[in-house]
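lol forgot to send this yesterday, sorry. struct tokens for the thing we talked abt
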């Protein structure tokens, strides 16, 4: 298990990128997100069935793997929330800086879970 930038270990190890493992991780680190996880899983499954295409499910799993990667590191999750707040409430310069930092955090999370960055 690696340590976060603040030197603290993550709350849990990064789970495999499967629906069951991600659901279990979310129930441990962010239980309030479970309804959104379930709703979005249902939508992705419906889209996959309608289009006979696995891409919606793959996007769902990638999105939630990144979410778990960030949320299992409380300092990183707090940083992301602060940048999101700054993007919403700051002036144009603050919003640009916040967008850059949010992008950096998301790019690093994508890379950490083995996904391509933007």
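and heres what i got for the seq, position by position
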């Amino acid at each position: 298990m690696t340590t976060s930038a603040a030197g603290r270990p993550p709350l849990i190890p990064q789970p495999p990128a499967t629906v069951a493992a991600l659901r279990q991780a979310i129930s441990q680190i962010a239980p309030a997100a479970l309804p959104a996880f379930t709703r979005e899983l249902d939508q992705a499954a419906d889209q996959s069935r309608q289009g006979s295409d696995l891409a919606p499910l793959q996007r769902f799993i990638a999105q939630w793997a990144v979410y778990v990667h960030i949320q299992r590191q409380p300092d990183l999750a707090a940083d992301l929330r602060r940048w999101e707040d700054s993007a919403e409430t700051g002036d144009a310069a603050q919003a640009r800086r916040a967008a850059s930092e949010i992008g950096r955090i998301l790019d690093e999370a994508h890379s950490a879970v083995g996904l391509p960055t933007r």
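The radius of gyration is 15 Å. anyway ping me if u want another try
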